[in-house]
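RETRY 2/3 - previous attempt timed out on the joint model. Re-submitting the same 299-residue input unchanged.
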Amino acid sequence: MASNDDRVKASWRSYLELCKPNVVALMILTSVIGMMLASPTFPHWKVMLFGNLGIALMAASAAAINHIVDRKIDPIMSRTRNRPLAKGNVDVTHALLFSTILGVSGMALLITQINALTAWLTFASLIGYAVVYTLFLKRATPQNIVIGGLAGAAPPLLGWTSVTGVVEPNSLLLVLIIFAWTPPHFWALAIHRKAEYAKADIPMLPVTHGEAYTKVQILLYTLILLAISLFPFITGMSGYLYLGAALALGLRFIYWAVVMIRNVRPHAAINTFKYSITYLMLLFLALLVDHYLVAYIGT
Ligand code: HEM
Ligand SMILES: CC(C)=CCC/C(C)=C/CC/C(C)=C/COP(=O)(O)OP(=O)(O)O
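RETRY 2/3 succeeded.
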């Protein structure tokens, strides 16, 4: 029999799971880097702490709403059937309350400690993901994740505006990178999980247009991504170290897209999905290292 302690731990874990912590962690890495690139000096500790905390709370709130909206389809797919609401470990009322607490405290932090622009842009991202994508687009069109991807791509912009209070062109470049990255990131997983999405009646691209078509789309987006990822170098935001990293990481992504199209390797789709996460992490770290290296060498 489970002890009281086990039950408490299980419920903590369930609430943590509602936040999609790994996804939010990578988002926060991109918002931290957005903050650091926004100014030549290191951002004020208050902006770093309250800005990222506010953005993380709002993203986690959106993730919890996603769990609530998807509670009927999550039990159908093996990847999601153990989620807290799908399993009944957390009920809708508690999840809604939890999401509201996260969202309201995130918004309060951003408005009082950061600035109104960042707060409202973050709120727009929350609505974009939790309502526009999850409630409508996900069930309506195979272009769901392309349009919905804009919400997930926002964190570097949110980090940037936390520091500057204004939307600047370079911050939009970072958004564009994640926007172009999202289709290959997600469609690789969707190919791997095609049968489950079909079973749940969700019109993901591999279900509606087939695997071969989706793989070509992935290749096209990885080519676009490689091109877009060079913009920070072209505009002078980053230097040669970043250029080298963007080229190497981008070519590796294209390699995986081609491996998928050639259909000669088992597990190519899931490996491409895993690589997409490594790609984004390393690309943003390269932006960061380059930024401080250039500043250091320049002094
Ligand atoms: C609309 C846009 C996006 C869609 C549809 C999408 C979809 C997904 C899905 C279905 C998973 C699998 C989750 C699981 O197995 O539990 C996943 C995992 C992941 N995604 Fe995304 N994603 C999107 C945007 C992003 C963004 C913007 C980031 C970060 C900047 C991100 C980072 C991750 C990470 C780190 C994982 C691994 C999670 C884990 O291992 O627990 N995703 N994504
Ligand atoms: C405020 C802000 C920055 C908001 C962004 C919030 C956020 C956590 C976006 C995550 C994107 C994501 C994991 C989409 C997958 O949803 P899915 O429903 O297709 O995947 P699932 O089946 O794994 O739930």
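Residues 1-164 form a domain with the Tetracycline Repressor; domain 2 fold (CATH 1.10.357.140). Closing ticket.
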